[in-house]
Every structure is written in C-alpha cells, then in structure tokens.
C-alpha cells in the first residue's frame, strides 16, 4: 500500500477543493510515485465519502477506458470505473453551466438502467442483460480536477490520476428512446455526434469491449471484491464509443442514435 487511508483522504480533499474552486490540482501520481490501482480507488472512495457526507446521493456508476486503443496507450488490460451522483444528472436538451467545471469534454455511450440488483463474482454478459430494465442513449460529461499536463515537470496524467479523479466523470445526460436490451444486437447501436451542427465523431457500441454489457459484468465483479453490487434503479454508463469532444460556452452537442432517438445539451 503506497497510499494509506490518511493520505487517501488528503488527496480526496484536494480533489474536492479543485472542483469547488475550478482550479486544477497537481496530479496525485507525482506525490505518490509507485502507486497502484488499489491506491487510486482508495482515493476515489475517500472522495465519494466526502460527497455523501455533504448530502449527495449515489445514482449509479460509470465505466471508462473500454477501448483497446485507450488501454494500450495506458499499458493496462482492464477498464476503470467511477460513481454517479444526483447532481451530475442533466436534462436532455437542457443547459449545462460550464462555469461549474474546469475543462469539459463529451462522449457518447449507452446507459443501462438496472431492473434488479446484480452481483459478482463471475458475472456474465447474459447476467447483465437479464438484470437490465432498459438501455437508453446517453452523453457523458468529462472534466478533470487534475492538470492534464503538469506545468512544472511536463508529466502527463496516468491511469492512477484518472481513477482517483472519479474516472474523470462530471455529468450525464440521458435521452432518446429507452429500449429493451434484447430488442436487437447492442453491438450495432451507434451514434452520429455533432457539435454546433457539424459532425464531429461517429461510432458503434461494439467499440466497447465488443459489447457494451461486457464492461458492466466487469464492474459487477470489481464491486463484489469490495462487498458491493449494482443496485436496482441505478444507471450504469457502459463506456464511450467515440473520442472525447471538447466543448465550451455556446456549444450544442447532439448525438443521433438513429432508431433510438437523439440526446443533446447546450453549454452555457
């Protein structure tokens, strides 16, 4: 253990301050060389406890780093995950206040809404489909409470920084048409993502570990190792199948999911 509970709490408090003041903090990996994923999740959990103590409520989870390209770039062989809170949920077609964030980006993905609790270990894709009430188009809002590049050393964020920083999650927009997970082959669900009317990115859900439910099975197993599970009613973002789109004040993002409708938001 490189990061003990006291150090995790101190790191989480720095993240919380960075978010509240809109001022990026120095990467935790620079303060704790040699840290591992377990250390990063310890910091993330400490930040979650700070949020819950402040009155926030868990509404679900997010999964990231689901593409082979991203995993290879970070020299890892598994996704990462974070938590979703009640104040992260924005209305479809609504306004997102950019002044609340540091540097926003947007990704398109599918959100699974759980019908029943889902626990690991040895959770399968089919277990996920059985436990899902419906799937719905979603946009994930990404922010980073750390510098993306350290201004002093030029060091780039590591996966440990990203995990500590709640896997870079900042918000979620859900919209379009909810559909049953067995309505069709989820691998072929896709989106055309436009920014201010111009197409920026396109992608298919097969880019998420070959099937978007695969990451949710992985998450159920990871949570089980900590005595936790996915809960009925929770939203789970299954992972992006496009590259992040940078956004700022005045931008509108629209993701067209074809037969599953559209989801959009305006950044003010």
Shape: globular
**Total separate domains:** 1
Helical region count?
A: 7
Order of helices and strands: HHHEHEEEEHEHEEEHEEEE
CATH fold description: Fumarylacetoacetate hydrolase, domain 2
Q: Class by helix and strand content?
A: alpha+beta
| Percentage of residues in strands | 25-35%
Helix content estimate: 25-40%
- Measured between the Cα atoms of the first and last residue, the distance is 42 Å
Largest sheet: 8 strands, mixed
Count the E strands. 13
CATH architecture: Alpha-Beta Complex
CATH H-tier superfamily: Fumarylacetoacetase-like, C-terminal domain
CATH class: Alpha Beta
What this model shows, in words?
Helix content is 26%, strand content 29%. With 268 residues, it is α+β, with helices and mostly antiparallel strands. The chain has one domain (57-267): Fumarylacetoacetase-like, C-terminal domain (Fumarylacetoacetate hydrolase, domain 2). Strands 1, 2, 3, 5, 6, 7, 10 and 11 form an eight-stranded mixed beta sheet that branches. A five-stranded mixed beta sheet has the order 4-13-12-8-9, with no helix packed on it. Strand 12 and strand 13 (262-267) form a beta hairpin. The relative contact order is 0.21. The model has no long low-confidence stretch (mean pLDDT 95).
In terms of topology, how is this protein built?
Layout: H1 5-21, H2 28-31, H3 37-53, E1 58-64, H4 68-74, E2 80-85, E3 89-90, E4 94-96, E5 105-114, H5 125-131, E6 132-142, H6 159-164, E7 169-174, E8 190-195, E9 198-204, H7 212-224, E10 235-240, E11 245-246, E12 252-256, E13 262-267
Parallel strand pairs: 1-10, 3-7, 4-13
Antiparallel strand pairs: 1-2, 5-6, 5-10, 5-11, 6-7, 8-9, 8-12, 12-13
């Amino acid at each position: 253990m490189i990061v003990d509970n006291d150090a995790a709490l101190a790191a989480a408090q720095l993240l919380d301050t960075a978010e509240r003041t809109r001022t990026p903090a120095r990467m935790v990996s620079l303060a704790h060389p040699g840290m591992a994923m377990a250390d990063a999740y310890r910091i993330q959990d400490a930040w979650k406890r700070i949020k819950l103590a402040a009155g926030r409520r868990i509404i679900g989870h997010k999964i990231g780093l689901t593409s082979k390209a991203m995993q290879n770039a970070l020299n890892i062989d598994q996704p990462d995950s974070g938590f979703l809170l009640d104040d992260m949920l924005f209305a479809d077609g609504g306004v997102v206040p950019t002044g609340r964030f540091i540097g926003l980006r947007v990704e398109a993905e599918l959100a699974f809404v759980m019908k029943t609790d889902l626990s690991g270990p040895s959770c399968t894709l089919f277990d996920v489909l059985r436990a899902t009430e419906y799937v719905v188009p979603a946009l994930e809002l990404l922010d980073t409470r750390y510098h993306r590049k350290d201004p002093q050393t030029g060091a780039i964020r590591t996966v440990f920084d990203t995990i500590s920083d709640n896997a870079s999650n900042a918000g979620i927009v859900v919209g379009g048409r909810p559909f049953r997970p067995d309505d069709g082959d989820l691998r072929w669900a896709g989106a055309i993502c436009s920014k201010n009317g111009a197409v920026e990115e396109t992608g298919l859900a097969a880019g998420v570990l070959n099937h978007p439910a695969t990451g949710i099975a992985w998450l159920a197993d990871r949570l089980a190792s900590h005595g936790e599970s996915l809960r009925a009613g929770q939203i789970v973002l299954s992972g992006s199948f496009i590259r992040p789109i940078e956004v700022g004040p005045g931008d509108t993002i629209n993701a067209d999911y074809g037969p599953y409708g559209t989801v959009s938001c305006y950044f003010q």
